[in-house]
Each structure stands twice: as C-alpha cells, then as structure tokens.
Amino acid sequence: MKTFIFLFLIVSAFSAASQTRLATTEYPPYVNLDGKEVNGVAVELIEYIYGELGESIDISVLPWGRALVNTSAGKVQGLFPTFKTSEREEFAIFMDEVLFDENIIAVKNSASQKKWSRDNFKNLTLCLVNNWSYGAKFDALVEQKSFAGIVYVKAARQCLEILLLNRVDFWVNNEFGVRYLAAIYEAEKNIHFEAKVIDSNPSYLAFSKKGKITKEKIAKLDAILKQMKLNGEYKQLIDIYFDSLTALSPF
C-alpha cells in the first residue's frame, strides 16, 4: 500500500511538472472566469492546440500587469492573448501564427439609416468605453474631434444598451466583444455590423524566455494553428463557441 501511494505521488508530481503553465487575464469573450472555471474562445483554442500535441495546460487568470511580470520572470511559461510590442519582445518569444486579429468595428442599430463614412463623421455620435484604446488610427480621429459627439461609459455592455435605445448613432468596439454581448443579451437581430474594419491588432501566444520552451515546440504549435486555419477548424471552433453562448436576462 505504501509503495502504491509513493508511486501515485511521483506520477502526480510528474504530471503537474509536465503541464504547461500559462497566464492570462479576464477578457470576455477571449477569457471568462466563471467561479473557478476558466473558459472563453481563446481558452478553447489554446486547449485544442495543446490537445493536438497530447499535452495539457494549467491556466492562471491574473491581473494583466501581474501576468506580464510573471511571464517576464519565468514564473509561468507563457501568456495569451497578447499584442506584440518591442517591450514584450525583450522577455517573450512570440509564435509566428496569430491567435486572433482583434478587429475594431462600428455597429449601429439595425433600424438606423446612418452611414459610416469619413465624410459623415461630423454628423455622427458614438459610444466608447472610457480609457480604452481602439487602435492608433481611430484614437487619432477621436483626439482630432472628428465626430459630432461621444458618450463615454464604464463598460461595453452600456454601449450596447444605449445603442439599442437610439441614444447614439454608432458603437465602436472589438468585433468579438460585440458578438459576445449581442449573443448573451439576444440583440443580434437589433444591430448591424459595418463591413469595413476600422483597425486590426493581431494577438498571440507568447512564451517566457526564462521558461523551458524550445524552438521546435513553438514550430509544432505554429504548424497546428496554421493547419487549423487552412482546413476550416479554426473558424469552426470560433463559430461553435459563439453559437453555444447562453443568453442572459435582457436589459
């Protein structure tokens, strides 16, 4: 019996050590924290990629600043989803394949006849989340006071609410964020996505330079993600995630 317990502890310790520890932050719909359960479209994608290698991962949901510090110090092996910056490249190795192109889009009430065009900006009112960046191009338009008016709110959910009440002409936001909120508040039929992407920022899975990741391992992960995009599994995973979202109570 003692021998069995000893062997069990060794196997358990080995399994824990062999898991890849990754850090992230709560960032719906990419990463959601439901009690102790971590889910979200980015989590599902990362788990699928590692599953193709026959490996498991341990995900820590942390404040973003702490996630960056822990990755820099090698306390976790990587983090996601993260934008590539020169500062982060000093302590992290980024995959070649992009996890998500985080597109910034404009959305209007489906009953609205307003047009999203540069010539018409001076006649449009917008809803934005206070202290958010929407990419350099759009941030510059805001700074130049290109629009008739801007309503600032604390959370993206509030923008959806006031858009549905026709208190603004457009809501500018991350595309997946719009899809997520529209799904859980059953508003898909009440909003219209403008076709043109305002800006796009690629996000990645990146690994600590102080970790044990190898170039060969990163190449395998890149190959799996690339193949998913080529064979349609990538799009299918994203579509299934959004289709499976459960609606909450309406506003």
From TrEMBL:
Signal sequence coordinates: 1-23
Residues covered by the Solute-binding protein family 3/N-terminal domain: 19-245
Tell me the keywords, alphabetical order. Signal
Q: Which residues form a coiled coil?
A: none
Q: Which InterPro entries match?
A: Solute-binding_3/MltF_N
Family, as annotated:
Belongs to the bacterial solute-binding protein 3 family.
Q: What is this protein called?
A: Solute-binding protein family 3/N-terminal domain-containing protein
